[in-house]
UniProtKB/TrEMBL annotation:
Residues 8-65 form the HTH lysR-type domain. SUPFAM superfamilies: Periplasmic binding protein-like II (SSF53850), Winged helix' DNA-binding domain (SSF46785). Belongs to the LysR transcriptional regulatory family. InterPro entries: LysR_HTH_N, LysR_subst-bd, WH-like_DNA-bd_sf, WH_DNA-bd_sf. This is LysR family transcriptional regulator. The keyword Cytoplasm does not apply. PANTHER family: HTH-TYPE TRANSCRIPTIONAL ACTIVATOR BAUR, HTH-TYPE TRANSCRIPTIONAL REGULATOR.
Amino acid sequence: MLGNLADIDLRMLRVFCAIVDAGGFTAAQARLNTSLSRLSVVVRDLEERLGYSLCRRGSSGFQLTDQGLELFEAAQGLFADIERFRQHANRLGPNAREHLQIGSVDSLASLPCAPLPLALKHLRQRLPQVRPNLHLMRPDELEQSVLDDRLHLAIGAFHHELSGLNYRHLFDEEQHLYCAAGHPLFALRDEELSLDRICSADYVGRGYMAEHQRPHDLHFNQAVSAYSMEAIATLILSTTYLGYLPSHYAAGWVAKGQLRALLPLRLGYRSRFHCITRQGQEPGTALATLLQCLELAAQQLTEPAPAVVQGR
């Protein structure tokens, strides 16, 4: 039975809620970037602290107990109340500034149609007292952070639409498969590059993407995983791996002859980027204004785009 609610209890509750949102322990592994054994320990410790079972695991899959479902719903309300208290407390000071917690994937600054910089400019002009805090995360972390009320808003390319979140399309981003100078495929002509040859080369995959989210449904020889564009670029530049990068992000290396896109017309794709907020959230003035600024900036910067076939 819980006595005083401590920070450790809140951390365990957040992990438990993330497991429920993911639909089970295995799916939550990549989202939380931790091991199955660690997740099991956290839930077991939480059950011992509470004095009752929260979930069942077995051949029938992951299932919440009645108490687990009630605790999950109560925890969601608790985290929402904590965020409302934090925002209210921050508005009480003599020099109160409303803080906006904004999330984004990395490596968007070089994309001309990415609207966040222009949107922040518009926000500063309209509400100079608002202080935005920007956090760079993986797509799965962004979704979880918005669900948990740790972020008010996030921008990324998401591979599905989770219940509990609103998704607003903002822009698209071109992606290509690259290898570096010194890689065996770099000097080959396009007509020498068969899909079998490309798929048999060592490939750096995005660790947060599920198997069914492979670009063009191709079976690459995934030798390593990475969790940011910077990490993927580093591994590609080692001349050891192939990997996908946003074309705007790779353009500098391509111009210097350090990277080459492989069969861009066949293997390229476009990621569809959305802004996400939590469903049921009552947006304050700052968040509502930022959403307006994002839509305005996206309209000002949008370029005509071909069909979208894949997430980031």
